[in-house]
Design brief:
By secondary structure, the protein is α/β, with parallel strands linked by helices. It has three domains: 283 residues, TIM Barrel (Alpha-Beta Barrel); 31 residues, no CATH class; 114 residues, 2-Layer Sandwich (Double Stranded RNA Binding Domain), CATH 3.30.160. 41% of the residues lie in helices and 21% in strands. Strands 2-3-4-5-6-7-8-9 form an eight-stranded parallel barrel, surrounded by ten helices. Strands 13-14-15 form a three-stranded antiparallel beta sheet, covered by helices on one side. β3, α3 and β4 form a beta-alpha-beta unit. α2 runs antiparallel to α12, α6 packs parallel to α7 and α17 runs parallel beside α18. Bound molecules: 3-methyl-2-oxobutanoic acid and zinc ion. 3-methyl-2-oxobutanoic acid binds next to β6. The site of 3-methyl-2-oxobutanoic acid (KIV) has 8 residues, from β6.
Length: 522
């Protein structure tokens, strides 16, 4: 079997594009799960983009074991120095440096001649090699470059010491056969290509990132880059879980394997969705809520007779357990714990009773408790321990849109009540909370979705608030009452903002300076 290396950039290409700044604790939580998933490389951030990002890459580099920790840099000395500094304590550090190689980027953005680009690329790799032995070079917009020029750049950076060469389809313009052609061209025209791993990095603008990546792998690429749930710039990056499962499902035909523990895929997807606030569409391949549902009678009949008639992946292989029991208020602690463990949660013994009591409360409200409810319950329990608790919310409405909310919160142990009018009940509740908490934030986005089935299904609210220093923070709340779910989500975000202001959870600022034209020649 040929071993394919899996490079995860959820925390860099995924995070920077969302405009969401994950704080270092959130990054660590995701990174630890990525280690459990078994990826080979974690791109932790872009250290030169801000002191916050440098700090969070430094923390990840220090904490993560058994995985390559990588930082991104432009082909600029300052960026590479920041990367090296942040990776100093990494067990396996990698600097990922590079420059654009397509005519449009070189002429219009960089304002550099091809010779100057080659010179900068080589100088960047040589500079990075002073710090680490593992240097990956990215040839940005490789797919729209002139192939002989691409080959020339790659040959020279490999001669300068690059161990991995990344040939991205930065704008998601390729089709699978064309992308495969580019990989083959590189393999056949770069004389020293045997000294480096060819890496592929696709974007999904035409919905072909997974197909292009699989084509690139079949054409001989040794590393694939992507993000969990495909989050990323514009239409996103390659969904790693899709590529991994395409390779896994066809392993006897392709003869390729990865180090990924596929049973962790579902848990990783949920975690990334919860922390970034980016929902996974129900029909999304591999990790969508409907990915293993069979609705039509003919399909149900087929699956009951023989699962493989309509199911190419056993859901358990990606960590979705068979639904044998439905929990209810009659379910005991043992059944509750057993199901949690099947879903990949192993709560500490001392937290189990609190969780069980929350479960019973939910079961009383809903009757039947489904897996999605348990995921929501566990996701919610993670954000507990806040110093703002909801004591009471009451709302009166007048007409279609006017509402008045009276909210009582326990703030640092003290009960306080205030009321506000708003354009609908959620707006009124948020305004009342603002009056009570007094944190200067702007609500930028609000979504509400049903977590599971049934008329008493849990509602999950997600809010994105912008704080005074421009950072976007995600808050999430669940409840069978959608107004309460909204209030919880808003308070969850305010708690995070307050912690940031106190210096706890300083964010990893993600805004990346787009002034590459101020290029520093090395
Ligand atoms: O899409 C791209 O070209 C990138 C590079 C910076 C690796 O993300
Ligand atoms: Zn990218």
């Amino acid at each position: 079997m040929r071993r394919l290396y899996v490079f995860d950039t959820t925390l860099r290409d995924g995070e920077q594009s969302l405009g969401i700044t994950l704080n270092v604790h959130e990054k660590i939580e995701i990174a630890n799960q990525l280690v459990k998933l078994g990826v080979d490389v974690i791109e932790a951030g872009f250290p030169a983009s801000s002191p916050g990002d440098l700090e969070s890459v430094r923390t990840l580099a220090r904490e993560l074991k058994g995985v390559i920790v990588c930082g991104l840099s432009r082909a600029v000395e300052y960026d590479i120095d920041c990367c090296a500094e942040s990776l100093r304590e990494a067990e396996y550090p990698r600097i990922h440096t590079g420059i654009a190689v397509s005519p449009v980027h070189m002429e219009q953005k960089l304002k550099l001649s091809p010779d100057q680009v080659v010179e900068a690329a080589v100088a960047a790799v040589k500079h990075a090699k002073k710090y680490v032995s593992d240097v990956e070079f990215y040839a940005e917009d490789a797919f729209r470059s002139e192939l002989p020029f691409l080959a020339r750049v790659l040959e020279q950076v490999i001669a300068a010491g690059a161990t991995v060469v990344n040939i991205p389809d930065t704008v998601g313009y390729a089709t699978p056969w064309e992308y495969a052609e580019m990989v083959k061209y590189v393999k056949n025209h770069v004389s020293n290509i045997d000294k480096a791993v060819v890496s592929i990095h696709c974007h999904n603008d035409l919905g072909m990132a997974t197909a292009n990546s699989v084509a690139g792998i079949m054409a001989g690429a040794g590393q694939v880059e992507g993000t969990i749930n495909g989050i990323g710039e514009r239409a996103g990056n390659t969904s790693l879980e899709e590529v991994v499962m395409a390779i896994y499902t066809q392993r006897s035909r392709y003869g390729i394997e990865t180090g990924v523990n596929t049973r962790e895929i579902s848990a990783t997807s949920r975690l990334v969705s919860r922390i970034t606030g980016v929902p996974v569409p129900a029909h999304k391949a591999i990790v969508g809520g409907n990915a293993f549902m069979h609705a039509s009678g003919i399909h149900q009949d087929g699956v009951l007779k023989e699962r493989t008639t309509y199911e190419i992946i056993n859901p358990e292989v990606v960590g979705v357990p068979k639904n044998r029991i439905v929990l209810s208020a009659r379910s005991g602690r043992h059944a509750f714990r057993h199901r949690l463990e099947e879903l990949g949660y192993y709560p500490e013994q001392e937290n189990l009773e609190t969780l069980y009591q929350s479960f019973l409360q939910l079961a009383d409200q809903k009757g039947e408790v489904f897996d999605q409810d348990l995921h929501a319950l566990m996701g919610d329990s993670v954000s507990e321990g806040s110093n703002i608790n909801i004591n009471n919310i009451s709302v009166t409405t007048a007409g279609a849109s006017r509402a008045t909310a009276t909210v009582t919160l326990e703030l640092d142990g003290n009960m306080t009540t205030d009321a506000a009018c708003g354009n609908g009940p959620v707006d009124a509740v948020i305004r009342a909370i603002d009056r009570l908490v007094g944190e200067p934030v702007t609500l930028e986005d609000y979504t509400l979705q049903s977590v599971s089935r049934g008329k008493e299904a849990l509602g999950e609210a997600t809010v994105k608030v912008r704080c005074a220093d421009g950072v976007l923070v995600v808050g999430r709340g669940i409840s069978t009452d959608v107004i309460e779910a909204s209030a919880r989500a808003y308070i969850n975000a305010l708690v995070k903002v307050k912690r940031m202001a106190e210096g706890i959870n300083r964010p990893a600022y993600a805004a990346i300076a787009d002034e590459v034209s101020v290029f520093t020649n090395l």
